[in-house]
Amino acid sequence: xxxxxxxxxxxxxxxxxxxxxxxxxxxxxxxxxxxxxxxxxxxxxxxxxxxxxxxxxxxxxxxxxxxxxxxxxxxxxxxxxxxxxxxxxxxxxxxxxxxxxxxxxxxxxxxxxxxxxxxxxxxxxxxxxxxxxxxxxxxxxxxxxxxxxxxxxxxxxxxxxxxxxxxxxxxxxxxxxxxxxxxxxxxxxxxxxxxxxxxxxxxxxxxxxxxxxxxxxxxxxxxxxxxxxxxxxxxxxxxxxxxxxxxxxxxxxxxxxxxxxxxxxxxxxxxxxxxxxxxxxxxxxxxxxxxxxxxxxxxxxxxxxxxxxx
Amino acid sequence: xxxxxxxxxxxxxxxxxxxxxxxxxxxxxxxxxxxxxxxxxxxxxxxxxxxxxxxxxxxxxxxxxxxxxxxxxxxxxxxxxxxxxxxxxxxxxxxxxxxxxxxxxxxxxxxxxxxxxxxxxxxxxxxxxxxxxxxxxxxxxxxxxxxxxxxxxxxxxxxxxxxxxxxxxxxxxxxxxxxxxxxxxxxxxxxxxxxxxxxxxxxxxxxxxxxxxxxxxxxxxxxxxxxxxxxxxxxxxxxxxxxxxxxxxxxxxxxxxxxxxxxxxxxxxxxxxxxxxxxxxxxxxxxxxxxxxxxxxxxxxxxxxxxxxxxxxxxxxxxxxxxxxxxxxxxxxxxxxxxxxxxxxxxxxxxxxxxxxxxxxxxxxxxxxxxxxxxxxxxxxxxxxxxxxxxxxxxxxxxxxxxxxxxxxxxxxxxxxxxxxxxxxxxxxxxxxxxx
Lengths: 310, 436
Hints:
heterodimer, A: alpha/beta, five-stranded parallel β-sheet, four-stranded parallel β-sheet, 14% strand, globular, B: alpha/beta, Urease, subunit C, domain 1, TIM Barrel, nine-stranded mixed β-sheet, 19 strands
């Protein structure tokens, strides 16, 4: 007899922690929440009385706002802490900041931080649920989930698809979470980019490393471009943005080898004309803005589920 | 467990009866007794009679070995006494069976002149083990100018190192090797090519990629080991390579020795006990420099210890408080404490059949004494009575409340360990005694 499935996670920190069944369940809940954002009155009382803190140590527009919108549409009380107003600029440690926030009894802390692993550090020290909104060059689980939601919505499935991820794989937490997530759901993930931006051992995470963009994109159902993350690069890793655009940018020509109905994705923000030609970003196959719409639904689902989901 | 500092302990006549005496320098491995009197080893034999007034300790087959010498520790005094002091560090040493430690110079201020050396030695008089200060290669360990080797030597340093801060300028390293010869001092190399390692937090490879951490490639160590070996060969001066962590470093040292270069090398217990997997989900207690590596490296290091390529086991005891460790992984300080676990972890090599007990004593006592040119490492009659008694079968859990060091940053916390020192004797004085 099949045992009844229950979502039991209290934190969302890494896609490694989630099973295929968990991901499938999150995406289904997100699908059902999407409709709330299309109502004239975009609010349900699900998380009334719950306190959600957005603790963002890195600048973010899209993700921070997306989480805030998601929490508010579920009627949670939300508070934002931005880097400039945070005590860490006065020398407070992350653990101290977290413990002080925890002392005000929040239910969920959503953290974005420039250091990989910081959500784990937070979760070790506080009782509240921790939701990783991007940690350093490690993971960005809610982004991968919204990407998977978008692909599933457009393609009807994830299993058996070929997903090409192009660009700065080393510094992209989006790429890391997507490689884990899409391969877990049965897709093939091909990565390509300058060899200086492909991290050692990435194939062991389940990705196929391609020496050319054309090879990665060949017959792809999804083509995802990543931003060059200058702020995380310590050494000269590419000669110039122009050369990058010429050899690794996604252009209509690059896309010739992909499936005719391939989806074009980008986690944003886009450097137009660098990793993606505007003609591609704004073209008919681009689902970049739908990714943003689905982001709210996925984040509503995550907030709802880690609070017990009843 | 009882501890007595050197300035409070009295030299006593001591008959260690019924032990297994392991003294490879003198070709001894036998059941017998050892008599200590007037701070010297008075007699080694069987059925020795206890002179009047001598305390007799029956050992029931426990090992009697020359006092263990850790040639690579950080005592943090002066400057970071909240992490460790000469007193607390040597107390941890005594608990680990060490009768002497070599103290690296990266204190605050750096031990790059005779007054810092003198301060450390003055503190050591009230400690629990002998302290052999290591002086800095360069002033402030900044890698610019040579430090005052002659004056430091006169004040008591036994070797030179900029440990923790590799000498990036090859010409300075060459001059250091040359000038150290004037003062008969050994140069200990922290071999690391900073351009490759500078931003890294752990071994480069799949795990670092998976954790989103910047890697430290193995070649960062190997390129620097090669450079330092080449400079030693070119200048004809001896060199000691500290904390070897990769298989290729072991190969490079093996080749240099085969060519007849005057090179010695050490590794630390964590490099043959743990791999990078110990980091798990960002456990900063498993963060050190050089970083924990892969299984193939661990295997090569064991082979190096077995075949003589690696001469010594040294802990790189590096105390850090929660302030430096309970932070984001890539911001956490490098280093772990090691004095209290080194012997147990090394005894595991004996139980695994990698090395014999005699080789263990070479690695932890005889060779460090020879390399540093200090007393000890032998149980010859007439030599200073630095003696360690080991119970190779004693099991214990290295719990937080057991840690003697002032800092608790060990990846071996809460591990069940087998084998430990039960008696530590320095200069005929008992500094540490546990259950016998």
